[in-house]
Each structure stands twice: as structure tokens, then as C-alpha cells.
Amino acid sequence: MDAYERTVLNKAFDVSSVITVHYFEHGRDYIFEGESHDFWEMVYADRGDVLAYFNDEWHTLKPGYAVFHKPMQFHNLKADGHTAPNVMIISFDCRSELMDFFEDKVLYIPQRVKDKIAEIIRFAGKAFTTRLDDPYTKKLIKSGDTAAEQYIQLYIEEMLLSLYMHYSTTEETEKNKLNSTVSIMNGVFDRATDYMRKNLNKSLTIENISNALHVSQSELKRVFREYTGMGVITYFRNMRIEHAKTLIRDGGQNITEISERMGYESIHCFSKQFKSVAGMSPREYSLSIKMWLDADI
User: How many CA atoms lie within 13 A of 141 on its CB side?
Assistant: First the structure.
């Protein structure tokens, strides 16, 4: 009988532990006091601008951008004073040599990597009983779901690997990618979401969006199902409500004014859609935000 030999696979990124997984909806005046620690931390701006401090200066993180803080690097975080940002923070141990690639880098996160980040948040809700919106969390309490824990490890490693491969590709590879089906779908999705973002104060239809992008409605539906698992208008509705939540946290307008600014037909229509997405009315959300801010959280 022929002897088989095992090939040991090396890992480019080996995440040994996770320290915190946070998702915050901050007020526009939020500021963190700053810290340093012996593990890596990724700060990702999901919505709104946020200012990240490292290497003795402030850097603006636009929505869709992330910064990686290396171990023992002092860093700080604050809102820009104009918008109420949504921020995700993942801190983890990874001693792999390739982590040097991420030092002091502010990177745009491609959509396929954003999907992995969303999965990290989703599985963190399953793996831990600790609140994900408490900035003072020092320890994650396990729920006992070991499968969810492993998913978190895998998605963090896949996130690092995807970013490393994406930003390490040669110009020739990038040219080839532009001609691929995946790149075409990327373009349609990015253009569609950009158009939606610029028209959050309108009640868009699939016809409006497809005409603006010069793509068929069936192609638009296919891309959104592939990327988000939901319909085009459902995704747009969620974007509108997330923006409305940002305006509520800004505190400069009341619910009626926000409803009118967002282009809703009535406050009743706005409240109904808000509750279907956020699970609470605009007023309930406003009160919950006030409670957190009054508690200095």
C-alpha cells in the first residue's frame, strides 16, 4: 500500500483570541478618552464621519473606511461634531508577520469584506451575552455557542486575508478583474447604493433606480439579492431609516421635522416604517438615546 503524506497548511493570519466586538450608534458630540493596549484593534466607520487619532494627529474616517491600530499604539476616537456616526470596533490577538501590512493604514473596505464584518457582528450576538453597544466592556461573556465563536474567528481571518489580497494585487490583476462578472456586479451595487444615498429624501422605486443607472430592473434585483439577501426597495428603506436615526441622534430637529426632511408623506407613514425597521417608534428611539447620553454611555 502506497504511503500518503500529509501536507501541513500554513496560515497567513492566525487569530488566537478576540477581546471586544462593538457596534455603536454615537451622538455627534461623542469623544473617547483614548487608550493603548497589547492587541490589534480595527475601527470601522459604518455611517457618518468619525475622527480617529493615532501617530500624533487626527484622521477622518469616511463611511466605509477602517483603520487598524497596532499593539501598544495610543489611539483615540470622536465624532466630528456635525454627524452622529455608527462605528464598529473589533479587537483581537494576531501575531502573524503579515499583520505588519495593516500598521497605520486607513483602508476603504470593499463590499465583499463589509459582508464579512456584518457576519462578525451577527455571530457575536450569538456567541456572547455581553452587550455590543457598551463601550466600557472589558470582557466578553460566552453564551456557550462554540460554533458561533469559530465563525467569528474565521470571519476575522477571512477579513484580514481578503483585505491583504485586495490591496496587494498587481496592476495587471486589477485590469483583469475589471473585466470580470464580479467587478461588473460590484460596479452596479456601488452605483446603486451611491444613488440611493444621494436621494434619501425621496420615495424611490425600482424603476427610478434602474433608469438612473441604465440597468434592467431584473439585473438590479439580482445584484441586490446576491449582495444583501434582500430586495432593492427593502435595502433602500433600511438606508432611509438608518439616516433618520442619525438625524435623531444629532438632536437638531424634532420627529416631525425629520419626517418632512426625509420626504415622507406623513408622520404616521414615517413612524410606521421606522418601527418596522428599528423595532421601536422614532419617539421611543429618541428617548432611548437620551437615556444613554444622560448616563454618559
Answer: 6
